[in-house]
TrEMBL record:
Residue ranges, compositional bias (Polar residues): 57-73
Top-level taxon: Bacteria
Region (Disordered): 1-73
The protein's name: Uncharacterized protein
Biased composition (Basic and acidic residues): 1-10, 17-48
């Protein structure tokens, strides 16, 4: 990985950043995001509630588009 790219862990419950040790302890409720640089040819998207910061499904994002943000990773 280049200097500007790294991975971060977020709680799927709160949307907050968490430490690696937390991600290892609770992998069901943690997602690892690749930040910065290129990540091959893969473009992935995640949807978050603009109100809570929590991850939401694509269906929820479609139903509540005015209060959902889509992030490209």
């Amino acid at each position: 990985m280049a200097n500007d790219e790294h991975e971060v862990n977020r709680s799927t419950r709160s949307g907050r950043f968490v430490k690696d040790s937390t991600a290892q302890r609770d992998p069901e409720h943690t997602v690892t995001e690749h930040v910065g640089g290129e990540h091959g040819d893969q473009d992935s998207e995640v949807n978050r509630s603009a109100r809570t910061g929590r991850f939401v499904t694509e269906t929820t994002a479609d139903l509540h588009s005015s209060t959902t943000e889509t992030q490209h990773l």
